């Protein structure tokens, strides 16, 4: 496994960033507060420690985080604290009395981020350039405030870097055998287990999760989808995924019989489809996050979209006019020709489901998958994770939650705001817990020789 970012950089010295030496009105001395964020550089799934020192005892202060995204949006979080008898505030140990989060939340300044007031609705925080870090400025202000952060000087500030790519991870553009994507290779001699990484119906090339998986020791291919209608038959579309899988498997840095598939949303659907139906590839294990198994065998992606749109009369809207699509594929059909026959899957599968997914019926689909695999005597292959009050897009930990997001409907090119679901605190807890268990699942099945499938192959 690849060590944490901060350790790979070596022991980091404590670096204090003080932008202004502003005297607190309650202070009887001129020593300015000191704010530290350690480590200053880390992977996005690593925790940091935020500490403020040299405050008067019992002093009310506000900690504030600010990030300027690649989409040119500003995202912020803030929390109210009171310094202890030593004049110290430790975010990892002390209670927040209010703000965008409350209670003891070591990473609340990241996961509770939201667009600053006045931002366009439906924004979400995305990182496309994984060569550069997310820069987050942490500041401490006098008193308990909820607005006007730009209008007053902070007592102290610190800049922290959050990376998807660890040092030494290689990024390689893939344009071969008709496949488009980006391959991320961990540092070191290898060989490593491999993963094919697929996102959802929005399409495009999304690299951030693959970069992070490579930082944890997996050769990972971020796969770009073909456009609907680009490939003229279901057979060609299916072969596209098989070719992509084999690019990973045949890479000299990959252990060829230790390659899995990781999918979210439509990517999870295709993950199950490939595991059940392909005679060419044999994934060692699969991770499926909020995906449905309702994909008609032998159909093209265009036909799938058309099937979805035929049921668009089932779309509902909430009180904010956000569209709710989860009912479009309900009820789950009993017709095996209209869904993936998961009874054919012969590798371990991890299903992650958010109970408040308002985009697809993830829970109902997971229940049907479990029932089908039970009838086939394959309960031992299935692991399920359920998370209440959790929405559709479950990302690596500390990623800000968004309940609704802008979306362009493929068939009509119309713009809409889709409700994804989830409540900020439980959704964020689910992201942290599921990522830890996903990494453990991958470690067990792709690295360990004691995994159930490895034992079966050895015997």
* CATH level 4 superfamily of the largest domain: Alpha/Beta hydrolase fold, catalytic domain
Low-confidence stretches: 1-28, 454-459
What sort of overall outline do the alpha carbons produce when their principal axes are compared? globular
CATH topological fold name of the largest domain = Rossmann fold
Roughly what is the average pLDDT, rounded to an integer? 90
| Element-by-element helix/strand order | HEEEEEEHEEEEEEHEHEHEHEEEHEEEHH
The assigned structural class equals alpha/beta
**Helix fraction by DSSP (H/I, runs of at least 4):** 10-25%
Please give the radius of gyration in angstroms: 24 Å
Which strands sit side by side, in order, in the main sheet? 10-11-13-12-14-15-18-19
């Amino acid at each position: 496994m690849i060590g944490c970012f901060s350790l790979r950089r070596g022991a980091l010295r404590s670096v204090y960033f003080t932008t202004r030496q502003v005297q607190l009105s309650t202070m009887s001395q001129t020593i300015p507060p000191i704010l530290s964020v350690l480590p200053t550089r880390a992977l996005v799934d690593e925790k940091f420690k935020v500490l403020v020192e040299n405050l008067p005892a019992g002093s009310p202060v506000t900690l504030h985080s600010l990030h300027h995204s690649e989409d040119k949006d500003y995202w912020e979080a803030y929390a109210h604290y009171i310094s202890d008898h030593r004049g110290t505030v430790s975010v990892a140990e002390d209670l927040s009395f209010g703000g965008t989060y409350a209670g003891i939340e070591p990473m609340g300044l990241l996961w509770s981020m939201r667009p600053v007031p006045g931002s366009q609705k439906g924004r979400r925080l995305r990182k496309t350039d994984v060569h550069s870090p997310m820069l987050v400025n942490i500041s401490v202000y006098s008193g308990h405030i909820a607005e006007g952060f730009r209008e007053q000087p902070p007592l102290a500030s610190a800049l922290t870097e959050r990376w998807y790519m660890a040092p030494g991870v290689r990024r390689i553009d893939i344009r071969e055998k008709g496949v488009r994507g980006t391959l991320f290779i961990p540092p070191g001699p290898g060989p490593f287990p491999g993963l094919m990484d697929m996102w959802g119906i929005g399409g495009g090339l999304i690299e951030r999760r693959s970069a992070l998986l490579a930082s944890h020791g997996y050769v990972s291919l971020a796969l770009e989808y073909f456009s609907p209608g680009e490939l003229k038959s279901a057979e060609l579309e299916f072969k596209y995924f098989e070719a992509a899988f084999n690019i990973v498997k045949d890479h000299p840095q990959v252990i060829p019989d230790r390659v899995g598939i990781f999918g979210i949303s439509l990517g999870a659907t295709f993950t199950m489809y490939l595991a059940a139906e392909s005679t060419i590839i044999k994934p060692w294990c699969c991770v499926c996050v909020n995906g449905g198994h309702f994909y008609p065998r032998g159909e093209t992606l265009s036909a799938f979209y058309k099937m979805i749109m035929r049921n668009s009369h089932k779309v509902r809207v909430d009180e904010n006019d956000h569209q709710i699509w989860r009912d479009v594929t309900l009820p789950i059909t009993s017709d095996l020709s209209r869904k993936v026959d998961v009874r054919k899957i012969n590798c371990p599968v991890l299903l992650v489901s958010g109970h408040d997914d308002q985009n697809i019926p993830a829970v109902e689909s997971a229940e049907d998958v479990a029932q089908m695999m039970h009838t086939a005597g394959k309960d031992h292959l299935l692991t399920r994770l359920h998370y209440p009050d959790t929405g559709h897009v479950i990302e690596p930990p500390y990623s800000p939650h968004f309940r609704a997001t802008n979306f362009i409907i493929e068939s009509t090119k119309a713009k809409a705001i889709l409700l994804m679901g989830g409540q900020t605190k439980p959704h964020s807890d689910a992201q942290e817990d599921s990522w830890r268990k996903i990494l453990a699942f991958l470690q067990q099945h792709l690295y360990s020789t004691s995994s159930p499938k490895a034992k079966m192959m050895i015997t």
